[in-house]
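Changelog note: in this version the structure field was regenerated for every chain. One regenerated record is shown below for reference.
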Amino acid sequence: MASIFSCTLVISSAISLLENEKRAAFIFSLLAIVSFLFPIAFLLISLDSVVILFFFYLFLLIIIGVLFLPIDFGKPKNISNPDFQIDERDIMFSRNELKPNTSRFNEYYAKNPEHRKKDDKFRIKPGLLSPKSLRFNPFGFAAADASFQTVDLLKNAVSETVTVEKQDIDPVVLTEFILQWTNKLGALDVGICEMKNEHWYSHKGRREEYGNEILPEHKYGIAFTVEMNQTMVDAAPSTSIVMESGQQYLESGKIAVQVAKFMRNLGWEARAHIDGNYRVICPLVARDAGLGEIGRMGLLLTPKQGPRVRIGVVTTNIPLIVSKKKADDSVTKFCVICKKCADVCPSSSISFTDREIINGSLRWQINSESCFTYWCTTGTDCGRCMRSCPYAHPDNFLHNVVRWGIRHSWLFRHLALKMDDLFYGRKPIEKPLPEWLNDK
């Protein structure tokens, strides 16, 4: 029995070393040594201790079994969409594009004077990808900008006129094809939902379409996630995080454009929603398509990568089968007790309190102005919350066992948080940049 515990701990230590989690590897190794030496030392005291040792390990097994019993408390709380359409002109990226002393700038702040003082704070900072920002890295920032610029090249392909005759479609066959093909194109998880009015922005807030009213035009939304590289995220808020964000916005954009073109090839309207060209609120569509839940930090938390993903969405009128969303509020229940993202947030933008009803929706509200101001100071999109989230650990056997326990057991959920603090720290350290990116 002792050898099984020791081997398990040694394997866990090896996995942690592969993940470059030195603190976790050290603690697992220490526990492995203790678990190996403990029965030897115990038996050296007295051979009569065998029976006591047997019952000790039996008791330990019972405790572990109890931890994994699927027992939960509390009824799921209603999680709804906002009771109105959000105006894209109000989001930080849109407000960042407003130029002082222009008619658009003056008009916006005349209608929304409460934002002016807060927005003036980020405007005096260097800005995203600025050479004067705290985390400036010439190669890294140029690479990140190259990704965003390449995404921008896709904008003319997000929606095109259908030029071929509409084909008759078997929704079941087509849905299965889309799910499998989108995975093959590089998506992690894919889901389909019926679009609701609240999924759509009310008005465009960026670039040449600024101020245009958005009319819900499609019945179905196909949402998918792409994974952000663990090593690049672990160095957040350094250069690597904005590089990885840009890269995965590009990857999700390519997939979305390709899937939308496929549907138009069948004679049906479809629109890709990609960075800088959204008409929908991607996290809400992804949540309702069954890909995860919205966490304390305001991002989509997926079951196996947590917030360490980027989202792509395609909307269409082609007949599809909606994904069956499994009722699972364990993610939000864990967020209620965890609060690590709030602890590590350098701008104190994440709430420590429980969810509130905001505009008809039960959710957490981050301080988007202070968050974005910090981005404009560092020159990157920070990512400290994403880095620290216990759900963001790699998708492997060790962490998936923990995720299973969190999903099914109230007791395990609370223990898992304490263990995550022990092995990875309450405020996980910022890891160094990959060697090839250092000092560039």
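Spot check on this record: The longest helix spans residues 239-265. The chain is about 50% helix and 10% strand.
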